[in-house]
Amino acid sequence: MQMNFSSGAHYGSPAHKENLPPSTKRNSFQHQRSKPRTVLGVVSENELRGRSFGQGSQYSRHSSVSDNSQSNLLGCLSSSGCDVYVEEACEVVLAASGRELVSEDSDSEDNALQNQNQSMRLLLELNSSSRLDASCQSEHEDSQLPGETFCAEYADDIYRNLKEKEKKFLARKGYLERHTEITSGMRVVLVDWLVEVSQEYMLSSETLYLAVNYVDRFLSCTTNVKRNKLQLVGTASLLIAAKYEEITPPELNEFVYITDSTYSQKQLLHMEDLLLRVLAFKLAAPTPHLFLRLFLSVHSSCAKTENLALYIAELSLLEMNPFLQYTPSLLAAGAYSLACYTIHKVLWPDALAVYTGYTVAEIMPCLTHLHKLHVSAESRPHQAIRDKFKSPKFRCVSWIAPLEGLPILGTSP
Q1: Where are the alpha helices (DSSP H) in 201-327?
Q2: 142 versus 387: which is more confidently predicted?
Q3: Quick check: 170 and 324 in contact, CB under 8 A?
Q4: SS3 call for 198
Q5: pLDDT digits (tens, 9 = 90+) for 301-332
Q6: How far is CA 142 from the centre of its chain?
Q7: Share above pLDDT 90 across residues of the chain, in percent, rounded to a whole number
Q8: Residue 297 pLDDT
């Protein structure tokens, strides 16, 4: 089947839920789709949908041309068995747990109750940020960020650590010059497909960001990857990211299934092995999503602003240029700033200016590019991200009209 990277495909996304119990996730994999999905080619509806894991499922899987050759990509290393050691995640989160209170004196129940209440108050204090915006706390229950809270006491140290590491995990600008068969448009199709697969399998947003980071870094370190291998690189990247980030990642046969068996389990494992070696097993990449979580723990905002920032940041995954030139922290700052100005007409909160060290002048170039991307999102041929954020779960923020223009630097917003 001839691979077709046409940009005219358009499809819907099912409801996205993160951090669900494993049993709920597994059941959700077998939901029915309302319309077939076009990914890297236009193919007939999946004939294998009644087998194994996908029995009873009505949605189709579309993929690239089948690879019948046994040649190895770039003279790949043999996929001999080896243990995968993953670098410890660099984020530090508060993991406070209640401590059992045991009274030595059986007659001192009142004292035990008082101590228990005191411990509970201490726990609540530890888990609350002193910098929360009181006007937005009523909407905080609609937050789409994970429930853990960054400990305010260590927030500065966390940020400094992530800032030091982020440049080590950047892809090279213009890396597609090293791949004669791959274009930026093909990468857009691949990322759009990864978004939809992440939705179907209810993977977290961080998993998606990591997968895109692995794809870009892998292609930065290799040459002449064939176009019929691009989806294999993306699938293996998502497999690794899910293993790293998810509590219950999809099984290997499910990743084969989403490509309509274009690639075998052996090919996928071989690419996983190659990817890990090329990346030197450095998987704990700071992402814009991670920085956004940190910023929102320091300066909380309303749910609509939060979700709009997440939407704008996720749109930036689609385009290499100009967004590969910006660090994840600057992208997160630009996305938050644009969302905050769109909703509240506040360009960059003073608390975040002090915390991040970024000035409005430093953010403005990235902010300008993000604004252009936001304005053009509705007219783009690939709509998986926009469809995702049309959901009430994300406060329907992709329906919010983009700003007509940005304030001129040096004037009050």
Answers
A1: 205-220, 230-245, 252-258, 265-278, 288-298, 303-315
A2: 387
A3: yes
A4: helix
A5: 899 999 999 999 999 999 999 999 999 999 99
A6: 18
A7: 55
A8: 85
Q: In the prediction, which pLDDT does 301 show?
A: 85
CB-based contacts of 186, cutoff 8 Å, min separation 6: 5, 227, 230
How sure is the predictor about 407, in pLDDT bands with cuts at 50, 70 and 90?
A: confident
Residue with tokens 């190659």: 274
CB proximity list for 87: less than 8 A, separation 6 or greater: 281, 282, 283, 284
40 neighbors 5 (Cβ within 8 angstroms): yes
Nearest to 397 by CA among 304, 302, 335: 304
Residue with tokens 């059986």: 106
Mean pLDDT value across residues 240-267? 94
Tokens of 90: 């660099």
Residue 31 has phi, psi (to 5 degrees) of -70, 165
What structural domains and CATH numbers belong to the chain? Answer: 34-66+166-278 (1.10.472.10), 288-399 (1.10.472.10)
44: amino acid identity, one letter: S
